[in-house]
Amino acid sequence: MPKWLMYSTVSMLIWAVWSLLSPIASQDLSGSMIQILSSAGIIPFAPLLLFSKNLKKGSHLGKGLLLALATGMTGGTGNILLYHALGHNGPASLVFPIISIAPLIPVLAAPFLFGLSRTRECL
Q: C-alpha angle 10/74/95, rounded to 5°?
């Protein structure tokens, strides 16, 4: 199994657990509190990543830092809205399929935004 496929599969399984835990947490806490606690749950990984040999890998560190911050901000905002949807009695069986459409947007936009072509192998 290629490494990328192994990482993708494990990531998908971890996201599946997250998808099971989110509606349960949304019954007892606000979306904002869940996001705060979720963010706190990431903190233990920071010291490990600070010592990674790949920490400063890349060709445009400044641009990458800004984009990484934007990624965190948009991801956090999306999470808060997800938790609010669940907290307002949105059925998880509908909320998660709706938000799962999100990856389709960059797939369809990539040729126009990044000049990437979709090939049969990619689809």
A: 65
